[in-house]
Backbone:
C-alpha cells in the first residue's frame, strides 16, 4: 500500500460533550494504533479556535509506535467546549498539506488525505456554507487531496458535507450516535486506510465504443477492498467490435501501467432471471437489460458528482438535440442520435427512463378509491375504526416479480479494477 499522511480534523465544540466525545476518543485510539510505521499523522482540533498537535515543534508526525502512543494521549486529553469554526479548520488542514507538497517534506509517494468529523453547523468564523465550500476548493487546488467527511449525529448539515467531499475527491458518511458510533468510525477508516493506486486513468484507444456513453474513466485513488467500474455502449454499427485499453496510475514503487485489447467475438446469449422489485403496472411485466441499467445507474451517479462540482455541461452544446419524448417507445429504444450535454437534464432523462429514485425524481404510490377487497383493506382497518366505517381497496403494489430474458446486450462492463488486480470482463451478455 502507498504510505499515507492522514490529517484528522476533529470537532471539539460544546455539542460534542459527553458520549460523542468519548466515542470519538475511543475510535481515534483504535485508528491510531492501526496506522503503519510508514504513515504520518496530523491531528487538528477545532471549536471556536483551532489548534494542531505537534511533536518536537512539527505538526507532521511519523506514525512510529512511540509517536502513536503520544498521539493517543493527546486525543485522550481533548475536551468539548466552544463553537464550531469549520471554515478555518479545513483551510488550516489544507494549508499544512500544501506546505508538505510544496516543500517536498514527505516525498511524492506519500498519499495525503483529510478525515473531517463534526456534529453540527458552522457557528464561528465563516458561516455561509456556499462560501465555506468555495474557500475549501480554493485551498485544495494545489494539494488536490481527498476530504472524507463524517457527520456525527442528526443535527449535522449532511448535505453540505456531502457536497464538500464530492467536490474534493472524497465522500461523506453519517455516523449514528444512537448506535455504536465507535465501530462505525473504525469501519469508515478501514475503507480508506490502504490506498493502492492514485491518479487512476482508463483510456480506450481505437475502440468500438460510443464515446459519450462511457462512464467515469478518471479516479483520484483506488483503495484496497474497493472497486473501480467503467461501463459503456458498443457501437451497434460495427460488425466486429474491439476494445483496446490502457490503464495508468501511480503506485508505491512508481508507475502502474496495464494495456491490451479484447475482441467482442465471443458474445453468446444466455438466459438470466431479472427481478423487478417495484412494478407500477401489476398486470404488465417489464423486461430490463441488467447491464444497460447498471450503465444508466453509473452514468446518473457520475452526473450528480459533476453537478456537485459545478460542472453543468459535459460536451459541446452545439451537438445538443431536443430530449426525446420520455415515453415514446421508438425514441426510448433507438434514440435520435443526439446527446444531452446538460448534466442535470441528462440525469433527469435517464432517471425517469430507467425508473431510478434520485434527487430530481420521486417515487409516488397512489391508492385507488374503489371499495373492493384488496391488500390495502387490512391496513385501513386500524385507521377507520374511529369512523365506524371500514373500507377495503383494490390496489396492489407488486414488491417482487420476475421475468426471463434471452438476448445479447450491446452494453458492457469495459473494465473492473478490484483488489489491485486488473481484469477485463469484456462484453457481458444477459
Residues:
Amino acid at each position: 500500500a502507498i504510505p499515507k499522511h492522514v490529517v484528522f480534523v476533529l470537532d471539539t465544540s460544546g455539542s460534542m460533550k459527553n458520549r460523542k466525545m468519548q466515542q470519538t476518543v475511543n475510535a481515534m485510539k483504535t485508528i491510531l494504533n492501526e496506522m503503519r510505521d510508514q504513515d504520518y499523522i496530523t491531528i487538528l482540533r477545532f471549536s471556536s479556535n483551532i489548534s494542531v498537535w505537534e511533536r518536537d515543534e512539527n505538526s507532521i508526525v511519523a506514525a512510529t509506535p512511540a509517536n502513536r502512543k503520544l498521539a493517543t494521549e493527546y486525543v485522550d486529553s481533548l475536551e468539548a467546549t466552544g463553537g464550531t469554526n469549520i471554515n478555518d479548520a479545513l483551510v488550516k488542514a489544507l494549508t499544512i498539506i500544501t506546505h508538505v507538497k510544496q516543500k517536498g517534506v514527505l516525498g511524492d509517494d506519500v498519499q495525503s488525505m483529510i478525515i473531517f468529523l463534526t456534529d453540527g453547523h458552522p457557528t464561528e468564523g465563516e458561516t455561509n456554507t456556499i462560501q465555506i465550500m468555495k474557500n475549501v476548493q480554493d485551498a485544495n487546488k494545489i494539494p488536490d487531496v481527498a476530504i472524507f467527511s463524517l457527520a456525527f449525529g442528526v443535527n449535522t448539515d449532511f448535505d453540505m458535507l456531502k457536497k464538500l467531499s464530492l467536490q474534493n475527491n472524497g465522500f461523506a458518511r453519517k455516523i449514528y450516535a444512537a448506535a455504536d458510533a465507535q465501530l462505525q468510525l473504525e469501519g469508515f477508516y478501514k475503507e480508506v486506510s490502504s490506498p493502492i493506486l492514485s491518479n487512476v486513468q482508463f483510456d480506450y484507444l481505437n475502440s468500438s465504443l460510443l464515446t459519450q456513453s462511457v462512464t467515469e474513466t478518471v479516479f483520484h485513488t483506488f483503495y484496497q477492498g474497493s472497486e473501480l467500474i467503467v461501463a459503456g455502449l458498443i457501437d451497434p454499427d460495427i460488425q466486429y467490435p474491439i476494445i483496446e485499453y490502457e490503464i495508468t496510475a501511480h503506485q508505491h514503487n512508481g508507475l502502474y501501467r496495464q494495456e491490451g485489447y479484447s475482441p467482442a467475438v465471443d458474445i453468446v446469449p444466455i438466459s438470466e432471471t431479472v427481478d423487478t422489485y417495484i412494478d407500477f403496472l401489476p398486470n404488465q411485466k417489464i423486461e430490463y437489460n441488467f447491464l444497460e441499467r447498471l450503465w444508466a445507474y453509473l452514468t446518473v451517479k457520475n452526473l450528480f458528482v459533476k453537478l456537485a462540482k459545478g460542472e453543468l455541461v459535459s460536451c459541446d452544446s452545439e451537438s445538443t438535440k431536443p430530449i426525446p419524448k420520455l415515453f415514446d417507445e421508438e425514441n426510448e429504444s433507438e434514440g435520435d442520435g443526439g446527446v444531452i450535454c446538460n448534466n442535470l437534464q441528462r440525469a433527469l432523462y435517464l432517471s425517469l427512463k430507467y425508473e431510478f429514485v434520485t434527487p430530481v425524481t420521486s417515487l409516488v404510490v397512489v391508492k385507488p378509491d374503489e371499495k373492493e377487497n384488496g391488500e390495502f383493506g387490512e391496513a385501513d382497518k386500524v385507521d377507520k375504526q374511529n369512523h365506524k366505517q371500514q373500507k377495503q381497496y383494490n390496489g396492489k403494489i407488486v414488491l417482487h416479480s420476475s421475468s426471463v430474458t434471452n438476448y445479447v446486450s450491446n452494453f458492457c462492463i469495459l473494465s473492473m479494477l478490484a483488489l489491485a488486480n486488473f481484469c477485463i470482463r469484456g462484453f457481458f451478455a444477459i
Confidence is low (pLDDT under 50) at residues 266-286, 319-337, 386-408, 418-430. Residues 208 and 238 are 7 Å apart (CA to CA). The chain has ten helices and 16 strands.
